Amino acid sequence: MINLQKIFKVDTAEKPLIKIILWWEIRRILYNLFLLFFLFVTFTIISFLPRDGFIIFYASPMLAVGISLGLFLFFIVANICYTGGWMFQILTIKLNWKAIQVLTGRLFIYGLILSFIITLLPVLLWILNVTLPERILKPIYLWFINVLSFINLI
Questions:
Q1: Of 5, 85, 143, 151, which has the highest C-beta tally within 10 A?
Q2: What is the pLDDT confidence band of residue 1, given thresholds at 50, 70 and 90?
Q3: How far apart are CA 102 and CA 97, in angstroms?
Q4: pTM of the shown model
Q5: Residue 85, burial from CB neighbour count under 10 angstroms (0-12, 13-18, 19+)
Q6: Which range has the worst mean pLDDT, 23-27, 47-51, 55-59, 117-121?
Q7: 43 vs 146: CA distance, rounded Å
Q8: Domain extent listing, the chain
C-alpha cells in the first residue's frame, strides 16, 4: 500500500539543497497530473452549465487558439508558483519556528488546494453571476471593464 503521507508531506529536516529541490521536482509530475484532473473537472462542470451570463462564446478557430493559449499560460504560471514551494522551504530551512515548520510540512497539500480553487474559478464566477442580483454584479463588471480599458490606454 502506498503511504500517502510520504508522498504529500514535506520533510522539514535540514538536508542538502539538492535533496530539497529533488523532492519537489519529482512531485511536479504528480502536481501537473492533479492540475489536468482539476481542469477536466472544471471543463466538465462548465459544459453542463446554462449558457446565460455576460459573456457568450461562439465556436470558432480563434476560440480554440485562445483556450489553448490560456491553458498553456495557466500551466506555466501554476508551475512557477509550484517552484515557489521549494524556494520557500530553502529560504526558511534555518528558521526553527514551529509555525514555519508546520506550514512547510503541509505546503504541497496547501498548493494543491489553492490550485484546485483557482482552477474552479470560472465555475465560481458563474455561480456568482447567477446568484447575485444584476444591480450588484453589473457595477462590478463595468468597473472591471473600465480597469481593463484603462490598462490598455497606458
A1: 85
A2: very low
A3: 9
A4: 0.67
A5: buried
A6: 55-59
A7: 28
A8: 8-43+56-119
User: Each residue of 93-109: b (16+ CB within 10 Å) or e?
Assistant: beeeeeebbebbeebbe
CA 26, chain centre distance (Å) = 19
For cell 447567477, the residue is: 130
Say whether 15 sits in a helix, a strand or coil.
coil
Q: What are the C-alpha distances in Å from 47 to residues 8, 67, 102, 126?
A: 31, 14, 39, 12
Summarised one tens digit per residue, pLDDT across range 75-128 is 888 888 888 888 888 888 777 777 776 777 778 888 888 888 888 887 777 777
What is the rounded CA–CA span in Å between residue 149 and residue 154? 9
Report the helix count and the strand count for the chain, using DSSP H and E.
7, 0
